[in-house]
Amino acid sequence: MRCSARGLLGSALLALTVASVPACKKRGEATASDLSDAGYQLTTDDWFRASVGNDLEAMKKFVSSGFAADTRNAEGDTALHAAAAAGSQNAANYLLNRGISIDIRGRDEQTPLIAAVVANQTAMVRWLLQQGADPQIKDGKGFLPLMVAVREGSAGSVAELAPYSRGSLDPALLLAALEGKTEVIDSLTNYGASVYARMEDGRTPLMLAAENGHEESVKLLMDIGSSRFTTDAEGKTAADLATDAGHAEIAQIIARAPKPEELTLETPEQLGSEMEAFVDAAGAEISEEPAAEISSEPSVSAREISAADRVPSRSIEGVTLSVSPPVSENPENPTQETVTPTNTPPLIMRHYRESEVPVTVKSVEGKVATVRIAGSPAREVKVAEGQTIPGSSLVVIKVQRRIEDSKLTANVPTEVSVVEVRDSQTGSSREWISGVPSSAHDPIALLEDAVTGQRYTATPGQRFTASDGSEFIVSDVRPNQIVLENVADGSVQTIPLRGPRG
User: Fold this and answer.
1) From 123, 216, 235, 432, which residue has the greatest number of CB atoms within 10 Å?
2) 440, 430 in Cβ contact below 8 A?
């Protein structure tokens, strides 16, 4: 019997088709068998187990068997959430390549980034941020990843998130102080959170830590510059709040008698040296950490220049600095800040200091002033012109009463008592006014040239020049920023506090 070519071809195709059915079945069976041999079943629980265990080969077999990579568990999480919480970077990378969104929501509206924060997976937090995870997405309770890190006490995650959340650093510090997260407080202040931050009622981080009985946090905050003499809206100090809350030991720590160094008026040179030492110490700490734990920085910073090689800081007054080109905001890089399109020197604010003296002016009668010296207990003494305030090197130069009409008196003409003092050791002088905390110096910032690493001290009213001839004045120095004014056109540029490591 003759067969046509067409008939032969049809028969061959039919045979191939029939033969392929069991072949496909065998492959499917082989995949399931391989999973079983590896200790997995084709279930959601085992899919999550493979993701947590960073088992890429098993995950590929799941997908080859038709398992959906975006399968959720009973809590609403995806395997990406589980991998993030376990620190399983390879699994997470595989899931992202399978098309799962890096910001996909899970239980309590948490993103994988927040899941990593909750699990204290610092390296995973860093990696997710590098892959483009959004640090501004809040969870179902309204918490940013940074605030979650504070609440969980994850200082490592805080350090990774801080550069992406500069506007939230002060609120984060207040929360850390409230909850007594000492390591988190240290991390936040190294990245620009200010110990001078305040609640709406005037309470500072030190007050919150004292009031809630967090002794270690109190000690750290005092060590890094928190004033124990500052008062809240009701006129209470941190010691007062600790006493009211029943924390007598903490109150004693705060209200101890002033040390001699607290009763001095430091020079700008002394302050600059102290601030440099603080910044260098923070740089030394981070340089001792494992390389994998160090975030990359695009610009030259203080920690890249050894203390031995550094030129001591000097006043920014009269300095000529290079200028930086205008920078536009890059939405894909939240650490890159928008710069006003003026020729502004590339300065970084590393540190800030303001110091209150534990002496307050109570009243003036003739040439004699009554001052209150803080301590436990506090005491009031009378000091005449030419005399030295007990326990200090501060000589009273002048005593008077006058009408004050300024922001110190809310621009309302008010009669105040005034005491002018001079430190016989440093030669610095200050004027203290009744009703106003007595300061040891003007607010001062430590600035750093982002290109050279050279540091400068800056106080309000100082002037300096950019290399293009533009003249600037330091309009204001605040705890979290320095304000520069272009003398020619009046434009204003703010430079935020970035901290020793920011």
Assistant:
1) 432
2) yes
Q: Is residue 23 part of a domain?
A: no
CA angle 67, 72, 76 (to 5 degrees): 175
Distance CA 316, CA 357 (A): 26
217/321 Cα distance (integer angstroms): 39
CA geometry: angle 82, 85, 91, nearest 5 deg:
55
| Total-model pTM | 0.78
- Domain assignment present for 243: yes
Among 262, 296, 330, identify where a domain stops.
262
Kindly give the confidence (pLDDT) of every residue in the chain, 502 residues in length, as a single tens digit, with 9 standing for 90 and above: 444 444 444 444 444 443 444 444 454 455 667 787 778 999 999 999 999 999 999 999 999 999 999 999 999 999 999 999 999 999 999 999 999 999 999 999 999 999 999 999 999 999 999 999 999 999 999 999 999 999 999 999 999 999 999 889 999 999 999 999 999 999 999 999 999 999 999 999 999 999 999 999 999 999 998 999 888 999 899 999 999 999 999 999 999 888 888 899 999 999 999 999 999 988 776 555 444 333 333 333 333 334 444 567 889 999 998 876 554 444 444 444 444 445 678 899 999 999 989 999 999 999 999 999 988 788 999 999 999 999 999 999 999 999 988 766 677 888 999 999 999 999 999 999 998 889 999 999 999 998 889 999 999 999 999 888 899 999 999 998 999 999 999 999 999 999 998 8
- Are 322 and 282 members of one domain? yes
How far is 185 from 193, CA to CA, in rounded Å? 9
Domain assignment of residue 395, given as a range: 359-433
